[in-house]
Specification:
Layout lengths: L1 H28 L3 E6 L1 E2 L2 H18 L3 E7 L11 E7 L2 H8 L2 H10 L3 E2 L2 E5 L4
Helix pairs in contact: 2-4
C-alpha cells in the first residue's frame, strides 16, 4: 500500500516540476523591448553632472538594463550631437512604468534643460 502512495506522490511531484519548467521556458521566449535614445545635448557638462546620474539610478531601480551608451558612429544619415543610449526592458509596460515614475519624471525635467530627447521603443526578436 505504501508503494502506491509513494508512486502517486512521485508522479505529482514530477508534474509540478514539469509545470514550473514549462512556465519558465514560456517566460524566456518572450523577447525584450529595447529603448533607443538619440539625445541632442546643448550643455554636456551639466547634462552629465545633473541629469545622467539620476536617470541611470532610475533605470536600474526600475529593472532597465543598459545595453549601449556613448557617442554614436554615423553610418548613414544625420545623428544629433549627443549620446546614443540603448536600454533593455522586459516589456513595453515596464518601460512605460519607468518613464512615468516620479524619480524619472524629476530627472527628465532636469535633462530637458540641457538636451532634446529623441526616444523610440522597439520589440526585440526571438532567435
Amino acid at each position: 500500500m505504501k508503494t502506491k502512495y509513494t508512486a502517486a506522490l512521485s508522479m505529482l511531484a514530477g508534474m509540478a516540476v514539469g509545470a514550473v519548467a514549462v512556465q519558465s521556458l514560456y517566460a524566456q521566449a518572450k523577447p525584450p523591448v529595447y529603448m533607443v535614445a538619440l539625445n541632442e545635448v546643448t550643455n554636456s557638462d551639466r547634462y552629465a553632472k545633473e541629469y545622467v546620474p539620476r536617470a541611470q539610478a532610475s533605470v536600474k531601480a526600475h529593472g532597465g538594463v543598459y545595453v549601449a551608451a556613448g557617442p554614436g558612429t554615423v553610418i548613414e544619415g544625420d545623428l544629433p550631437k549627443g549620446p546614443v543610449v540603448v536600454l533593455r526592458w522586459d516589456s513595453l509596460e515596464a518601460l512605460k512604468a519607468w518613464k512615468d515614475s516620479p524619480d524619472f519624471v524629476a530627472a527628465h525635467e532636469i535633462g530637458m534643460k540641457y538636451a532634446k530627447f529623441n526616444i523610440v521603443a522597439v520589440n526585440g526578436v526571438t532567435q
